[in-house]
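Quick one: structure for this chain?
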Amino acid sequence: MIKNIAIMRAKELQEHCPEGLVTQELLEDRAIVSVRLHDRILETDFIESKRSIMHPRRCNEYYDVLGQGIKLGIIVPRKDVEQEKSMLKRIKGPDRLVVIGYDEELGYRPVLV
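Got it. Here's what it folds into:
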């Protein structure tokens, strides 16, 4: 399912930035989708599974991305959206952070919150 979500999200990002290069990195239990334009990363989205969402390393990676001035996208199971938002509550603005929920049974049907 994570692979399918990464493909769908990559298509969305490509539509929003047609001149950008969208890449996908599929890991064991998560995926990372990035948009690069003129040798600069504009956005990095982490697609988390039920399992990967439990890893404490995630926050360090998120803040690392934000610290580089890159927009951060977090895509998690719908039931975990509020927890993600509260974890990163001090990060404000749609140009910095977006949290998207997906339905674990239906797949990627983004719910932007």
